[in-house]
Amino acid sequence: MKISVIGTGYVGLVTGTCLAETGNEVICVDIDKAKVEKMRNGQVPIYEPHLDVLFERNIKANRLRFTTSLEEGLNHGEIIFLALPTPEDEDGSADLSYVLNVSEEIGNLIKTYKVIVDKSTVPVGTAEKVHNIIAKNAACEFDVVSNPEFLREGFAVDDFLKPERIVVGSSSERATALMKKLYSPFVRSGNPIIIMDEKSAELTKYAANSFLATKITFMNEIANYCEKVGADVDMVRAGMGSDSRIGKRFLFPGIGYGGSCFPKDVKALKKAGKDENYDFKILNSVIEINSAQKTILLPKIEKYFNNGLKGKTIAIWGLAFKPETDDIREAPSIDMMEALLAKGAKLQVFDPEAMPNIEKRFGNKLEYSNSMYAALEKADALLICTEWSIFRTPDYERLKKLLKNPVVFDGRNLYNVNDMESEGFTYVSVGRKSVNL
Length: 437
Description:
The structure is a single chain. This protein is α/β, with parallel strands linked by helices. Helix content is 42%, strand content 14%. The chain contains 17 helices and 14 strands. It has a 6-stranded parallel β-sheet with strand order 3-2-1-4-5-6, with helices on both faces. The protein has a 6-stranded parallel β-sheet with strand order 11-10-9-12-13-14. Strands 7-8 form a two-stranded parallel sheet. The protein is globular, with a radius of gyration of 24 Å. The N and C termini lie far apart (62 Å).
């Protein structure tokens, strides 16, 4: 099939590349000329495990091409994916300007039947808005479909190629048939393609992300309470997670969630509710609690240094909002670093992938280390903000040798409390007993 993807951000590039991998002819459209030229030369503009292999293979096979011409993309594709940014607006709502502006152009340019697919995360009613805008100028038949993505950064390629489910919001039998044909190679194992109306599909994405954010936030609340009463959140988590009604995933406490989806989508659903005179009380709490959770370790760091952080050097491991990505959007590390800098601390930081993005934001306010151990040299303490695998089994003797003080503040509960105690560390985590604080 001939597919066009408008927008080559995280979702658009993964979508286009993975659709090419199943034999489709894909053109990706982006207005950034320099970015398009780099992609034509085989350079992947984002970090996502395994994407580079598929990207290179499909470019060589001429199944994956790139252009700055929207008209070329529209002429090529029978199915047109809109994978455009929907950033958070000042009032918390999703900014639809990119989606709606492109819709205006689509109406003027399409000449034959097209299925226009909203792949971006958009509020309820967006498909209808897109349809109405295109219809003002379109001289041919078309359909608008909602097809939300459920991709986890760090696992996006696997999530696309082996989806748990595919949600298609469509009231057109013709469009539905084409979407089923497109996705049939991805559901051969029997995972469902769920067909529903457009508004329900749009809400499904927001509901799913908001529920997962709520689940994480609840466990952070339990972790904070565990510290008050002397319980161990790891044991509570194991007891809860063994209940099939709850499940084991998204029960790990820490210093809050971040990323491009959860924070934005929770706020957007809250704002959408407000627009309909509905108060999502639970989402209000999720937003408030997560904001506070990001700096939950700061008072403990201050306590250790007797409220004297000025001139202290803190090493930080992990800057991305989660492992296996270079994405720093809404990363808890940012909140912690800004708070520590405001207290007068010096920061030596390391992340396997995210340091270029952090440097764009912080510039020379931070010292950037070329390895996890280099970040420790002459530091007064270590703070862990992201659970990269390489941090899980460190050389404890080396840690003690490099740090001025054997103290670790662990925002992701990477280590066993008893092990850290026996190794002679002062160790502070989330929802568990502190050692030697």
